């Protein structure tokens, strides 16, 4: 994430911070290797203070692409995948550079490396674009990780909000998505109690704790 006390939230697209980015990436790889994690979120970063997004967009894209190619080369040696996550600039972070799956897909196409993927957080995607069914269908080949949270509160999937998660989970299954779904939300109360939604979802699908079929027993 860079120097968060100085207002940074990632470095990959920030001009002039290439050396710091590479140092941070090497540290991330070290930790990922130690814990056996094959995916690293490569954070784009924020539009620098005092500058207009449109004025620096070209320079930031050039920096981003250069850093992502470096990332892909490094991660290929470790059999790891780099992930790009669009973060909404309407609620969460007005200055974040990468905001939509369309933008991320365009960057990935320009970089052209198979070990870089899209990290699609449905919370951010709903706020920026909606159209989740079509977006999941469109970008599935690029997706390396999915994250969830209810909109707008960013709480558990069964909390009041805009998203119908049982439908979305079944859609992911029907599309053949076999990766992880990360629960990146703020629990409304106790974390373990808040996971009751998952138990209820498994039961609604005829599954036991852990997602195993009752029929298998």
UniProtKB/TrEMBL annotation:
It catalyses: 3-hydroxypyruvate = 2-hydroxy-3-oxopropanoate. It comes from the Eukaryota. Keywords: Isomerase. Signal peptide: none annotated. InterPro entries: HyI-like, Sugar_Epim/Isomerase, Xyl_isomerase-like_sf, Xyl_isomerase-like_TIM-brl. One of its GO terms (biological process) is glyoxylate metabolic process. It holds the Pfam family AP_endonuc_2. Gene3D superfamilies: Divalent-metal-dependent TIM barrel enzymes. Its EC number is 5.3.1.22. One of its GO terms (molecular function) is hydroxypyruvate isomerase activity. The active site is at residues 85, 184. Residues 10-200 form the Xylose isomerase-like TIM barrel domain. It is an enzyme of class 5 (isomerase). Belongs to the hyi family. Catalyzes the reversible isomerization between hydroxypyruvate and 2-hydroxy-3-oxopropanoate (also termed tartronate semialdehyde). This is Putative hydroxypyruvate isomerase. It comes from Rhipidura dahli. The lineage of its organism: Eukaryota, Metazoa, Chordata, Craniata, Vertebrata.
């Amino acid at each position: 994430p860079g120097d968060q006390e100085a207002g940074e939230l990632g470095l990959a697209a920030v001009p002039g911070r290439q050396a710091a980015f590479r140092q941070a990436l090497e540290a991330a790889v070290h930790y990922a290797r130690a814990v056996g994690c094959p995916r690293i979120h490569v954070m784009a970063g924020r539009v620098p203070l005092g500058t207009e997004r449109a004025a620096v967009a070209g320079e930031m894209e050039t920096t981003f692409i250069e850093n992502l190619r470096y990332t892909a080369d490094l991660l290929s040696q470790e059999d790891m995948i780099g992930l790009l996550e669009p973060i909404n600039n309407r609620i969460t972070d007005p200055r974040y550079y990468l905001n939509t799956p369309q933008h991320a897909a365009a960057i990935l196409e320009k970089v052209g490396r198979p070990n870089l993927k899209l990290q699609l957080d449905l919370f951010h995607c709903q706020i920026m674009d909606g159209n989740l069914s079509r977006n999941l269908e469109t970008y599935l080949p690029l997706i390396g990780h999915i994250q969830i949270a209810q909109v707008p509160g960013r709480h558990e999937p069964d909390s009041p909000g805009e998203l119908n998660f049982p439908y979305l989970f079944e859609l992911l299954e029907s599309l053949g998505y076999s990766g992880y779904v990360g629960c990146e939300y703020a629990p409304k109360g106790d974390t373990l109690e808040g996971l009751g939604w998952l138990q209820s979802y498994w039961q609604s699908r005829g599954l036991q704790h852990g997602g195993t079929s009752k029929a298998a027993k």
